[in-house]
Specification:
Largest sheet: 5 strands, antiparallel
Number of strands: 10
Number of domains: 3
Keywords: Membrane, Transmembrane, Transmembrane helix
CATH topology of the largest domain: Immunoglobulin-like
CATH architecture of the largest domain: Sandwich
Radius of gyration: 26 Å
């Protein structure tokens, strides 16, 4: 009897908190690694999550999630969440971003040629093109965000991902095996059911 009462008491407390959240426009307490759309109040953002367009709601709240980024020699004192906030979410680069042809392009105007951090991750097979020229060995920060030295004036950087030949071979082999399996199962079914092909 006690084993049943304790979970019910715990779950009723959780349900009470959840019910309170459903009937309020307040946001849940957030950590320092969360950024909100500064043009909207927290109540507006909460209403958008509850009743509005989820796509807009997701754009209004950005949370630092560096878990999928590259570890380029993180040191013991590094806080990857702080670095992600600084290099990606709060990045000062004012760029026009376009996506197409399996690539992401950043366009911006620079007043100087000082090195900047572009808020995009670069992986082992990433292809980086800066102002029309491919960058052989892209420089990155310790969490893998791209660093470039722009020219004075208009700049373009395009990032795409080239799948390695090994992965291409694995995908091709997998496709051939599936096609072979389908053909084998079809022939086996025809043979088992005694169908004959008349010519």
């Amino acid at each position: 009897m006690i084993a049943i009462v304790v979970p019910v008491a715990i779950s009723s407390g959780i349900l009470a908190k959840s019910a309170h959240r459903l009937h309020t426009d307040e946001l849940v307490h957030v950590t320092k690694h969360t950024a909100f759309n500064e043009t909207k109040s927290k109540a507006e953002i909460a209403r958008e999550w509850r009743y509005g367009d989820v796509q807009n709601a997701l754009a209004d709240v950005q949370k630092a999630t560096p878990d999928y980024l590259v570890n380029n020699g993180l040191q013991s004192g590094d806080n990857s969440y702080d670095m992600y906030m600084r290099e990606v979410i709060q990045n000062p680069l004012k760029a026009q971003i376009t996506q197409g042809n399996d690539a992401l392009t950043y366009r911006w105007h620079s007043q100087n040629d000082n090195k900047i951090t572009v808020p995009v991750a670069v992986y082992a097979h990433s292809k980086v093109i800066l102002n029309g020229h491919q960058v052989a060995k892209p420089q990155t920060t310790r969490i893998g965000t791209l660093q470039v030295r722009p020219r004075v004036g208009q700049n373009n950087v395009t990032i795409s991902y080239d799948v390695s030949p090994v992965i291409k071979m694995i995908i091709l082999g997998n496709t051939v095996l599936w096609i072979g399996l389908i053909i084998f199962m079809t022939v086996k079914t025809i043979w088992r059911n005694g169908y004959q092909i008349k010519v």
